[in-house]
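Quality-control log, excerpt.
Job 1 of 2 completed; input and output follow.
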Amino acid sequence: MSKAVSLWEAFGGVPDPRDAQGRRHPLPAILTLASVAILSGARSLYAIAQFGRDRGKAFAVALGFTRDVPPCCATLHYLFVALDRKAFERALRRWTNGRVAGGWESVSIDGKTLRGTQGHEVPGVHVLAAYAHEAKVVLDQVPVDAKTNEHKAALELLDMIPLDGKLVMGDAMFCQRDLSRKIRKKRGIGSGR
């Protein structure tokens, strides 16, 4: 797979959408703060901003911030609206891939609907994920368009993950000839549940 890199290093490749004069905080520091806060249970931009502020100056410096106070909720909002989602996902994939270079033998493919944070009125985003059991990590995921199904997204997802010698599992929806051919072509082993 790829060489292990820190989260900060992985986020260094994400293009900064802000104007040069509007950059008060380094982008990798902001993205690292958001990731650490979310992994610690933060579920909103306000919670992410508060997470950074509650931990003080030493924490901010350790994440790479050059100012005493991490960004506020509004700064996070405007940055995330403008951020290149695909570049961000590539950075996360690079970081994750460095941690699962070996040690996993099977992967499950399954779809999930991620609900919005504003309640039941907000439509959820449907994604198809590949989960490596032994490594306990999502290797990759792709959004499933409302006009298609998980089967077509699975063809795309299989191109994104290494399958050589790995057992690929999925429910009956994934027991299709073209998916089986792709798994065999990449030297993986297919199994329906």
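Job 2 of 2 completed; input and output follow.
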Amino acid sequence: MAESEAERISRSLRENNRVVDAHLSGLSFEDYSLDGAQFENCAASDVRFVSGDLSATIWKDCRFSRCQFSNIRLTDAAFENCAFFDPATTSGCAFRFCELKEARFENCNLSMATYFVCDLFDVRFTDCAMRGAVFERPSFTHSLGEGSRARKVVQRAGHFEDCNLSDADLSEADLSSCSLIKCRLDNADFNGALLVNAALRGCDLNHA
């Protein structure tokens, strides 16, 4: 009997914690221990991935078309040369209530992606296509311990470098202490956004 794709993925994770050339459409992240797992040249279309811990996972050359990630931990995950955009329908992926703390995206296509109530503390986007991305109630903050007498210390950070954020919706977002370096921000919407101590160096702000 031929091995199913789900069985092949399960075997690969058990044997070497690495999955290559797989279609993830039938995969439930809740079914596996994926801490530190590596995924290469994998794909998924029209899938809603719900819950699961993908902390410290590594993704290279993967493609996600019209997918939704909900309530998933992606702390310290790394994405390289990955696509979250379907050019045929000009649709992006959605991240809802996801923990993207310290996640790294390098040379990824995140055009038209939506980030809804996501934890984005110390996230890093480098050389990414993010045209038309929507950030709705994002959190770039991290709270340190709170003592009985001491006030809670809040840190804010998020890093965008060499990214195309043309037409992005950053309205009402708290971007305090975030860094946007050499980014395209033409036609971006900053209405009501907070930019206290933010760094915008070498950015294109035409018609923003």
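Post-run check on job 2. The chain has a mean pLDDT of 91.
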